[in-house]
Specification:
Blueprint (H helix, E strand, L loop, with lengths): L9 H15 L18 E6 L11 H19 L3 E3 L3 E2 L4 H10 L3 H18 L10 E2 L3 H15 L1 E4 L4 E4 L14 E11 L4 E3 L4 E2 L2 E2 L7 E10 L5 H7 L7 H11 L1 E11 L5 E6 L10 E4 L5 H5 L2 H16 L2 H6 L7 E8 L6 E6 L11 E4 L5 H10 L7 E2 L13 E2 L10 H14 L3 E7 L4 E2 L12 E4 L2 E4 L29 H4 L5 E3 L7 H4 L2 H4 L12 H8 L6 E3 L1 E4 L6 H15 L7 E3 L2 E3 L3 E2 L16 H8 L1 H10 L7 E2 L2 H18 E3 L5 E3 L3 E2 L5 H19 L3 H15 L5 E2 H11 L4 H10 L23 E8 L2 E9 L4 H9 L2 H7 L4 E7 L3 E6 L1
Parallel strand pairs: 1-2, 1-26, 3-4, 14-16, 25-27, 26-28, 29-30, 33-34, 35-38
Antiparallel strand pairs: 5-6, 7-8, 7-11, 9-10, 11-21, 12-13, 12-15, 12-20, 14-17, 15-16, 18-19, 22-23, 22-24, 31-32, 35-36, 37-38
Helix pairs in contact: 1-24, 18-19, 19-20, 20-22, 21-22, 21-23, 22-23, 23-24
The structure holds one RNA strand.
Length: 844
RNA sequence: GCCGGCGUGGCGAAAUGGCAGACGCAAGGGACUUAAAAUCCCUUUUCGCGAAAGCGGAGUGCGGGUUCGAGUCCCGCCGCCGGCACCA
């Protein structure tokens, strides 16, 4: 677009208002205790998932969610809420460090530069963030409290009796280190040689690192772990009270993976060792024809017979060397080896062979299973391959081929015969418990959270090692800041880069610092809390601000609306909920859940319908759109494209469309004079709206207001277009119409609304008007047009008085010539009248 | 394989069980202009009949069903997208 000629001078007034908003602190939210705090106002906390400030800058996909929250933030301010709408930076993590290593610059410098770029990009869109509350996870004033929260975890345990996190002081056992919520364990972990770090399971995709796509191998290492599994049940239960998409709740439930069953104790025949298996189908115990231990199971060593030892050892070595990728690839074919040992089935004394196989995982249940081939697909495949016996113990209601894993009636099962699956489960579990050879048990797929990274650019642990034991630093020693190092490259071994800072590592004569750092998730686990009280030097969040901003009478979640991408559906949201619950249990917070309402915005695709990426060259940046069409057009198009939650492709033609709409709004108020200067339109007059105009105006107020609640911004914008189309050719044009439209438009296109409001000489600012309220009585016409259908097909139209009786409408329909024609010789069976909508004449 | 979500014009999309396609894009025609841009007006789901106003038929991925009436509810398929993937 030519720079000389624009349909309206957005390039002049947009920067003007942006500077004005920053300079006047227009969107500052007052905190409890501030001089200008008004406690009578209801609060509204609306939050975006804060970005990772990459070197590439924002693209239009980021801006979608941010625009939605900004519109709602502005809307709620106009409705009299005290609105908390903050922004910050999730700035620790791998990409910054990789970039730093590549370019030789310190990540602190590149991070600062990226943040400055992101901030100016966001300000150019005109977002109404309270910039006084900006935080970065890399700021020592921030991560001091991330470390403090780690100390809370370290100094707490989960008391199963109270089902709560409590101070470790209440633990009466001999070894507190065995129950802390933050603990050290020797774990087989995902070691990535190229990145020089260990990764969480979630950061490994198809056996490769999510960042960079490098191969990942398993090796045992000493790691910090967080005991999130203790909260599995609470994390499931807590979902019930949240206004989240059901799909996301389900994703979390599946991730936690609760399953109910029983542990059964088998005895090994020769040595008498007890082997516990976990099963969700204890009712099939009579059908167990063999048993499988995980190759890593500690008993394998003991029970393997000399004759089988060679095969077993070879298999175990093969399994151990497999990467995760190999393992999934080999999943198609079952493999395993007989140990030579036998176990005794406690329910019938039967002697069954014990095998090992890699489809049994050490990390789930007890690492051992009883195999019931007819009633489990995996066991069935295994039995087929190795010719192991099968026995049916559940009768399905209809005969099936192969295996059957559904519910039915127990058969060939002694005292269980004839019982339904549910009854049989209860009966056998009680039987096992009586004899002390088993018990009911609940298992979860969720694993504890691997919390350490062998990298430089992350929060150091507030931990020192002394005589081989870990010890927490005191709160007064926080923050623990990374030393300034010229060489922060990975060592190429699992030894973290911080180990190279010898002076820093040496804490005292006898103690050395922990050299691992925390994962990127750490800082984002609690940033929404810091936003409530970002300057607080005494506490991670003050009690007053927490109670006000996070408080909600009767509802569990504190943040009123949280918008972000689905990619964080499980990990970030689960980790944040976990930390929140711990802090809540320990009495530091007032709400049990962080986020009351969650909405996922859909992805914005490139103009080619493909996912935006640098390699495809289809990335659209907000900067380019703002340059050509302005920030208001960008905002409006982001919302006009379609429903927020939906995936949709970008179209510059679409941007032009909303840009034309804004130009029409501009010309509702302005016209060009002889010299080509914009002046207030001569068509404007202080006259009342016609009834038709009033109807459109009030319908627009109603529609926009309702659509705000449903986040249906696309249809709200459509309605404002209808409004504009109604008035654009009106002369005289009632000034009143703009007093209605501009406040409605101001959350969407704040610069334009503000500029016109000012030029028209209206009082105050458009954005500080109170939100318009529609007058229902102006919406209805005295006459309404009804469609008249015969057997569901429209045959005629009828104009009747708004309050016409059903009888009168039916009579009019029956006497319509067109209806009579359509009815022909048929008999009218009945007539359905829907007042204000239609009439349907039913003919046989 | 299992679990979610989505299928509506040339395109993005609207539609408390009540007139399918609002609004926008694109396309075509017209007005204004020396000309263009911008702006404004008209047409635009599709097929048939008609010079036209209009008239008639079909139509929301496919096949059934419930209902006076289904894009919307129910059952069974197909396709696309996302998540999980030996979790006993």
């Amino acid at each position: 677009m030519s720079t000389q000629r624009r349909p309206f001078p957005f390039h002049e007034f947009e920067p003007k208002w942006q500077e004005y908003w920053v300079a006047t602190g227009a969107f500052r939210a007052a905190n409890p205790g501030d001089a200008d705090f008004d406690g009578s106002k209801p609060k509204y906390y609306i939050l975006d998932m804060f970005p990772y400030p990459s070197g590439d800058g924002l693209h239009v996909g980021h801006v979608e969610g941010y625009t939605a929250t900004d519109i709602l933030a502005r809307f709620h301010r106009m409705q009299g809420f005290n609105v908390l709408h903050p922004m910050g930076w999730d700035a620790f993590g791998l990409p910054a460090e990789q970039y730093a290593i590549k370019t030789g610059q310190h990540p602190r410098e590149t991070t600062a530069r990226n943040i400055a770029n992101f901030r100016s990009q966001l300000q150019a869109v005109g977002f109404s963030y309270d910039w006084d509350r900006e935080v970065s996870t890399t700021d020592p004033g921030y991560f001091k409290w991330t470390q403090w929260i780690f100390l809370q975890l370290y100094n707490a345990w989960f008391n199963p009796a109270t089902r709560k996190a409590e101070s470790i002081a209440t633990y009466k056992g001999a070894d507190p280190d065995s129950v802390r919520l933050a603990y050290v364990a020797e774990m087989p972990v995902n070691w990535c040689p190229q990145l020089g770090t260990v990764l969480a399971n979630e950061e490994v995709v198809d056996g490769k690192s999510e960042v960079g796509g490098f191969p990942v191998e398993r090796r045992p290492l000493r790691q910090w772990m967080l005991r999130i599994t203790a909260f599995a049940e609470r994390l499931i239960e807590g979902l019930d009270g949240l206004d989240w998409p059901e799909g996301i709740k389900l994703l979390q439930r599946n991730w936690i993976g609760r399953s109910e069953g029983a542990v059964v104790v088998f005895r090994e025949e020769a040595g008498g060792a007890e082997i516990e298996v976990f099963t969700t189908r204890p009712d099939t115990l009579f059908g167990a024809t063999y048993m499988i231990l995980s190759p890593e199971h500690p008993l394998v060593e003991k029970i393997t017979t000399d004759a089988q030892r060679g095969d077993i050892d070879a298999y175990r070595v093969a399994v151990a060397s497999k990467s995760d990728l190999d393992r999934t690839e080999l999943n198609k074919e079952k493999s395993g080896v007989f140990t030579g040992a036998y176990a005794i089935n406690p329910v019938n004394g039967e002697r069954i062979p014990i095998w090992i196989a890699d489809y049994v995982l050490m990390g789930y249940g007890t690492g051992a299973i009883m195999a019931v081939p007819v009633h489990d697909e995996r066991d069935f495949e295994f039995a087929q391959k190795f010719g192991l016996p099968v026995r049916e113990v559940v009768k399905p209601s209809e005969a099936v081929d192969g295996f059957f894993s559904g519910d039915g009636v127990a058969v060939n099962s002694g005292f269980l015969d004839g019982l339904s699956t549910a009854e049989a489960k209860r009966s056998i579990t009680a039987w096992l418990e009586e004899r002390n050879i088993g018990r009911g048990m609940v298992n979860y797929k969720l694993r504890d959270w691997l919390f350490s990274r062998q990298r430089y650019w992350g929060e150091p642990f507030p931990i020192v090692w002394e005589g081989g034991r870990h010890r927490a630093l005191s709160e007064t020693e926080l923050p623990v800041v990374q030393p300034d190092m010229d060489d922060f490259k990975p060592t190429g071994t699992p030894e973290p880069p911080l180990s190279k800072a010898v002076d820093w590592v040496r804490y005292s004569e006898r103690a050395e610092r922990e050299t691992n750092t925390m994962p990127q998730w750490a800082g984002s686990c609690w940033y929404y809390l810091r936003f409530c009280d970002p300057e607080n030097g005494m506490r991670f969040v003050g009690e007053g601000p927490d109670r006000y901003w996070m408080g909600r009478s009767g509802q569990p979640g504190g943040v009123d609306l949280y918008i972000g991408g689905t990619e964080h559906a499980v990990l970030h949201l689960l980790y944040a909920r976990f930390w929140h619950k711990v802090l809540f249990d320990l009495g530091h917070l007032t709400t049990p859940e962080p986020f009351q309402r969650l909405v996922n915005q859909g992805m914005i695709l490139g103009p080619d319908g493909q996912k935006m990426s640098k390699s495809r060259g289809n990335v659209i940046t907000p900067d380019a759109v703002i340059e050509d069409y302005g920030a208001d057009s960008l905002r409006l198009y982001e919302m006009f494209m379609g429903p927020l939650e939906q995936m949709k492709p970008w179209s510059m033609k679409g941007v032009e469309g909303v840009h034309r709409f804004l130009a029409r709004v501009w010309r509702l108020a302005m016209e060009e004079d002889q010299e080509g200067e914009w002046v207030v339109s001569s068509a404007l007059a202080d006259v009342p709206m016609t009834p038709a105009q009033a109807r459109v105006a009030h319908a627009t107020i109603k529609k926009v207001t309702e659509d705000m609640r449903g986040l249906a911004f696309n249809t709200a914008i459509s309605q404002m277009m209808v409004f504009t189309n109604e008035f654009v050719n009106a002369s005289p044009r009632p000034l009143e119409s703009l007093k209605i439209l501009l406040p409605l438009l101001s959350p969407f296109a704040p610069h334009l609304a503000e500029e016109l409001w000012q030029r028209l000489g209206f009082e105050g600012a458009a954005s500080s008007q109170s939100w318009p309220v529609h007058n229902e009585s102006l919406l209805v016409d005295n006459e309404v047009e009804l469609a008249v259908q015969v057997n569901g097909k429209v045959r005629d139209r009828l104009v009747v008085a708004r309050d016409a009786s059903k009888e009168a409408i039916e009579e009019a329909a029956r006497s319509s010539v067109k209806v009579l024609e359509a009815v022909g010789g048929g008999a009218i069976v009945k007539v359905i009248v829907v007042p204000g909508k239609l009439v349907n004449v039913v003919v046989k």
